[in-house]
Write a structure and sequence with these properties.
The complex is a heterodimer. Chain A is mainly α. Chain A is about 70% helix and about 5% strand. In chain A, helix 2 packs antiparallel against helix 3. In chain B, helix 3 runs parallel beside helix 4, helix 5 packs across helix 6 and helix 11 crosses helix 12. In chain B, the strands form two sheets. In chain B, strands 7, 8, 9, 10, 11, 12, 13 and 14 form an eight-stranded mixed beta sheet that branches. In chain B, strands 2-3-1-4-5-6 form a six-stranded mixed beta sheet, sandwiched between helices. The interface between A and B is large, with 68 and 58 residues. Chain A: It holds the Pfam family BPD_transp_2. Chain A: It is found in: Cell membrane.
Chain lengths: ~300, ~400
Amino acid sequence: MTAVAVGTNRIDPYLIPALDGVAYGLLVFVAASGLVLCFGVANILNLAHGLLYAIGGYTAAALLDGGWASLALALAVGVLAAAAAGVLLAGLLTPVATGSHLSQALLTFGVALAGGSLLVAGFGPDDPQVQVPATLEGSVMVAGHRYAAYRLVFIVVAAVLAAALYLVVRRTRAGMLVRAAVDDPEMVACLGVSPARIRAGVLAAAGALAGAAGVLGAPIIGPGTDTADTVLLLSLVVVVLGGLGSMAGTLLAALAIGEIQTLGVALLPAAAPFLLFAAMAAVLAARARGLAVRWRTA
Amino acid sequence: MPLTTPWRSRALTAALLAAVLTTGTACGDDAPGPSAGGSIKIGLLASLSGTYQAVGTEIRDGFQLYLDTHDGKLGGRQVDLIVADEGNGAQTAVPAATKLLKQDRVSALTGIVGGGSVAGVTPVLNETKVPLVGSNGRPELKDVSRIWHTSYLSDEPGAAIAQHVRDNVKGSVYAIGPDYQGGWDELRGFTDAFSKIGGKLANADGKTTFTPFPATTNFLPYFARIKASGAAAVYTFYAGSAAVDFVKQYAQSEIKDIPLYAAGFLTEGGVLNAQGDAARDIYSVLNYSPDLDNAENRAFVAAWKAKHDGSPTTYALASYDAAAVLDRAIGAAGSDPTPEAINTAIGQLGQIASPRGTWQFSTTTHSPVQKWYLRQVRQDGRALSNTVVGDLATVGR
């Protein structure tokens, strides 16, 4: 213990929180990107977004048994179930799709409450145990500190997901349609692409992302009665910090949240209760459009 | 007509929603029941929805178990048990309790998970002059003339384990807990007693570290500070999902080898299943463990296991004891067990035999004077279980 160089002592205690901020931030990114997509592209305020994550989380808890096959199965089932729930939501939202955000918020919030109760009725009120593959269960040494192996692997997986998401939005026809729908929805409709189909597609994609985040993030933000609220809250903060429609802004905001929640808390534990919301208020006051510009103007 | 709302208004919508969400939501419902001649109405208020649903369900089931094993009677009278949902706190608990007390006109009230709910319900109890035999939450109260608790005071677990930690830990102890009334009381109980007997806290400023509740889901930044403090042990209190997060992250963190002592709720009931192997070896202090060796407990555990998966928790036990208290008090209240007569009878009960061992109500606080046990999470057959490894102090005032 005394062998540690005095010079590194100042930074040393904050290495793990900083690393963990990246893991947490990337999880928030994957979880929130679906909401950003919905809100920014389909202009639908989906307050049931946290529920989609919870579906993934409960799927992970139900299917994971400590083996790799079960992880693949849980990921597939979780993504499909949450995407299906997204399509269902899109159907329910049809009457209020072009209406005010208030009616959308009321409808999706109702769905979130009912869905949350259904999950609790189905899986029980206790937080279920999530069993990750045995090789990831332990911890590894990172720069002389012990760190959860799962979180280290999660950083890599989530980074790959983020890159894939970027490529899909920038490079594929589906991504182009989605971006076109942001810029000029009337023109896209004139071209013969049904806005309803885009809406269903976007909500399905949002569901799939949230479901994937729910399954992979279950050991970090685990399934439980308040998971949906936690995830929705973090996602909304991402929207405020990062702005809509820009993957870079979303990523930046999510990573900022991750670091605020870990490194910020380690540095200023007394300010922990309001750090996140202080940051949100500061960004809104200084720059109401969020940290990054929209792709429309970029 | 633009189909999209301007970004600024969307940002504000999101910000407002974030603010609303932090306050949380809840809803409750209640079920009226018929009343029959020669019977007695008892109201049970517990969280059957929301964050504390697991605890509320245990409380309902514990009381029901006593009725089921006693022919549905308390004090020789057929019981008409009216169950109502407490929800997440006073906001939903007060209307539900008001209905039980004023509309259903129950002779006694029991249950109540949250301390805040108890505080909110107290004025209605005083107005209707009905006794409460609470089985969990217990806030700071000025007037306890009609309030009784079969559970404990929040600062008692910490006070009971302080001497043991002082004797067994060579070095300073880091105290950490959730930032709300329950957390303050639990941690204060430990730190007050611990410093009185010469114990030293490892926390940087000598004060307990409190984490935002329920917002904290990631404890790693706090673990980094504990590591840096050079603590020889950690004392904590968390319950529910925070307990799961804390324990799972602790086991994978760089402080996993630092002994962890806790108020028993950290590893009690359903959270232990969710924590799994991560909870192994954690020491905790509680007034009950399902493996206590006495006749009452063997009967209680056997009856519980016949109806439910797993072992009973301290929550179920406290509610079971609340039924036992009412059983004896109603029997002693004579031919006309009015709420006043029941309340007087509770005060004269003396020693109460219970699965936790014999206890009695304190004359000043109306909460139990009882023995506390040191438990450790160990393998018990296929499952992990809180195993009693020793007796701690008898606490109560």
